[in-house]
């Protein structure tokens, strides 16, 4: 886990994001997206290690590299979603449909303790408890964060997950 320097800009909400890529150069795609997040009022505080992860859904595709990060932002949730989608596009993401390979994927996991259920935005991300590729890097940077719906720490959700997919540190 890497700690990022504090910024003097006032921030109001702590957020957690998941970033992943399974098209080369995978780490570069993630690093490029992190840089763009920082340039768009999303101030990175912590970044997990890189993890090599087995694809979910469509198995016959390259393995992913995934990370989670903690950030602070003044952006409201829908504006944050819009910004993440814009960064995905700027980073080269092509729309191939669900579960397909991707240049970059940025998912909003948590926005403080808010619970949001919109057609295009669900926070907390509904699949967190079933995704080791999210729980393992998230546990690295925020093991004591309490899921606002499940009312359990991330470390407990990781222990309880039934996900059997392979997730290994990619140093």
Tally of alpha and pi helices: 4
In CATH, what is the homologous superfamily? 7,8-Dihydro-6-hydroxymethylpterin-pyrophosphokinase HPPK
The shape, in one word, is: globular
The total domain count is 1
The CATH C-level class name? Alpha Beta
List the helices and strands and how they pair.
Layout: E1 2-3, E2 13-21, H1 26-38, E3 42-47, E4 51-53, E5 64-73, H2 77-90, E6 105-111, E7 116-117, E8 122-123, H3 132-141, H4 154-160, E9 167-169
Antiparallel strand pairs: 1-3, 2-5, 2-6, 3-5, 4-5, 4-9, 7-8
Helix pairs in contact: 3-4
Describe this structure in words.
The chain is an alpha+beta fold. The protein has one domain (2-169): 2-Layer Sandwich (Alpha-Beta Plaits). Helix content is 26%, strand content 26%. The protein contains four helices and nine strands. It has helices at 26-38, 77-90, 132-141, 154-160, and strands at residues 2-3, 13-21, 42-47, 51-53, 64-73, 105-111, 116-117, 122-123, 167-169. Strands 1, 2, 3, 4, 5, 6 and 9 form a seven-stranded antiparallel β-sheet that branches. A two-stranded antiparallel sheet has the order 7-8. A hairpin with a 4-residue loop joins strand 7 and strand 8. Helix 3 (132-141) packs antiparallel against helix 4 (154-160). The longest helix is centred in the middle third of the chain and has 14 residues, at 77-90. The model has no long low-confidence stretch (mean pLDDT 93).
């Amino acid at each position: 886990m890497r700690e990022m320097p504090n910024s003097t800009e006032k921030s109001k909400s702590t957020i957690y994001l998941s970033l992943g890529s399974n098209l080369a150069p995978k780490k570069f795609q993630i690093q490029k997206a992190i840089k763009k997040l920082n340039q768009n009022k999303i101030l990175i505080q912590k970044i997990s290690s890189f993890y090599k992860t087995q694809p979910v859904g469509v198995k016959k595709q390259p393995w992913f590299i995934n990370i989670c990060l903690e950030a602070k932002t003044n952006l409201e949730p829908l504006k944050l979603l819009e910004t993440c989608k814009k960064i995905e596009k700027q980073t080269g993401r092509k729309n191939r449909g669900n579960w397909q390979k991707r240049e970059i994927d940025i998912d909003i996991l948590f926005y403080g303790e808010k619970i949001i259920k919109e057609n295009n935005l669900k926070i907390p991300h509904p699949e967190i408890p079933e995704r080791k590729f999210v729980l393992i890097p998230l546990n690295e940077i925020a093991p004591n964060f309490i899921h606002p719906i499940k009312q359990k720490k991330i470390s407990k959700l990781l222990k309880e997950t039934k996900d059997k997919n392979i997730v290994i540190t990619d140093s």
